[in-house]
Amino acid sequence: MDPLRIADYRTRSRAFTVEAHAIFSIHEDARKSRVVEVHASFEALDELSLKQDDLFRQALRCAENGLYRAAHVMAWAAFMDYLEEMLASDGLVQVRALRPAWKGRNIEEMREYVTEHAFVETTQPLGLCTKNQMKALLGLLNKRNECAHPSDFYPGVNETLGYISEVIQRTKQLQAKSL
Fold this sequence. Notes:
Blueprint: H1 3-24, H2 31-43, H3 50-64, H4 68-87, H5 93-98, H6 107-113, H7 116-121, H8 131-148, H9 157-175
């Protein structure tokens, strides 16, 4: 078969797949297609580390496989890694000015002493987000905690895809800022 025809078939097949997932994603029980739509949002993120990229991909794989609590945990882990690296981007100068009592010579050591809640609370005074945005981040952290620790909370596909989408959007908002 002609290589140009094969390439044309591949291109058309990919376009068909994208269109099919877009159509099926609006249906409640089309989990795979709905995850593909969230995956497209994820692809729009810029400048993620390999670790952050992998964590977001793991969250999406968990959602594809019905591991909804795990998907919440992995998406939050990706966000926190991004936030912590952002806070450390200036050598922790602004963080130390804001929180001089925090222990740790670098962000890796600080992770041992500082809670995720405390890290998120620094976003507003550092100008990385508004008070309302910070509260929304704390809400996402609370939701992650419900999934990471024993609780009666068992999210479904809708909650999980919404959570991952919101975490991606909040990461995009942070990407627009800098320390």
